[in-house]
Amino acid sequence: MFNILVLIYAIFYLLLTQMRPTWALLLIIVALPSYLIRFSVFGIPGTILELMILLSFASWIWTLLKNYNFSLKKYWSEKKNRISYPFKWEIMLLLLISYGAVFVAALSSESLGIFKAYFLEPIIFFILVINILGKEKRFSEKILWSLLISALGVSLLAVYQKLTGQLIPNEFWAAEATRRSVSFFGYPNAVGLYLAPIVVILSSFLHQKLFVKSENQKKNIYEMIIIALSILLSLFAIVFAQSEGALIGILAAAIFYGLLVNQKMRQVTLVTLVVTLMIIVSTPKLLDYAKHKVTLTDLSGQIRQQQWIETKKMLLHNHTWILGTGLSRYQARILPLHQEGIFVKNDDPNWLEKVRTSAVYRAQVWQPTEVYMYPHNIFLNFWTELGLLGMLLFGWIIGKYLYCAIKLSGVLRREKRAESFLILGLGAAMVAILVHGLVDVPYFKNDLSVFFWLLFAWLGIYLVSYKNKK
């Protein structure tokens, strides 16, 4: 019965791709969490998210072939003026490296699935956004409102879960004393990973609307209220999920944005930073909290440090540091080196002596640790999955993205173009992803990898548009 419903939806969506291809792509953005709806056809697993991406791509290819009228003379005459895909060389190299990582993982079905879901399909989506949404007027607003709707859906469910304790599958997180919202996802941190960069982008969009005059000021006020409420609800959802990494990522993005957007905001940001630091330094509890977070000496930080120690040992073993483990092989390769738990350090000056001499105390500070799917650090995640070259390539890709966003926003700001706010917001969103990724996994997940390449396509459209106007 479920497969029949999937088939009906597939037919509906395929018709939509032919009649309204833009709507079809925007629906993908709204429904990024739909990867959670899984099905199997003839033993081949799939998700609604990848079904939509593949159907959109097939429909786009069919339209191209149907209207195909190749002229060699026209091709060569337009070749000099043709703008190539932004980030094309990096994308081609990434596909090559990630496909090679499938062979490092011995061509397992799991590695092929990871390659398809986290690299091939997101890059296909990148191509679709460039070619379909890139031709639309006000394409940015269409993407923004789609993200806003998606964020609202995730946030409203998270807030409801916090208030009622219902619809949280994990009993520990559902209990009132230890409650953490998970929204549609299976674990709390996924809420922060998904919403943090969206909050940053929506905030830059709101900033743009606040400082740009609209012909219909009344409509603009209503839009700003909706955007502000969406940002507020998303922040509540992140807090209710207790995703501290996401909040720190948003804070880092706000500093990045404030320092670069204009001189007035730079002054406000610097003054706010100085005042905040003074308050933290002069408040013992805040200083102690900040010290534990920065030095990673709280519980989650100590668990992360243990993961990284084990990952380092694994990478140094048998030249794994060169090729990595291959896609989806981290858990299996880390298992022989995994430590079942850690003794959690605290501020007790006699902590070590008590651990050595007291079995009761050892039991009190003992924390079991699980074998995670990834090392929970953005650089180690790519290093273990794609090898050293893959990690360096992703570092280059992210660096180039930030450079392009900063440079283009600066150029447009000097030209007094409203888009400068949003483009810098796209850069700030990557900062949020990067900072949160220092202690988590902000890419290796279906919705996050598609969202990652949506950001690249989004910025890429602006880059191509600006080159065309030069």
TrEMBL record:
It comes from the Bacteria. Keywords: Membrane, Transmembrane, Transmembrane helix. Residues 230-394 form the O-antigen ligase-related domain. The keyword Transmembrane applies. It holds the Pfam family Wzy_C. The keyword Transmembrane helix applies. It is found in: Membrane. Its main location: membrane. It is a multi-pass membrane protein. The chain crosses the membrane at residues 40-65, 86-107, 113-134, 143-160, 191-208, 220-239, 245-261, 268-287, 378-399, 420-438, 450-466. GO terms for cellular component: membrane. InterPro entries: O-antigen_ligase-rel_domated, WaaL-like. This is O-antigen ligase-related domain-containing protein. It comes from Candidatus Falkowbacteria bacterium CG10_big_fil_rev_8_21_14_0_10_39_9.
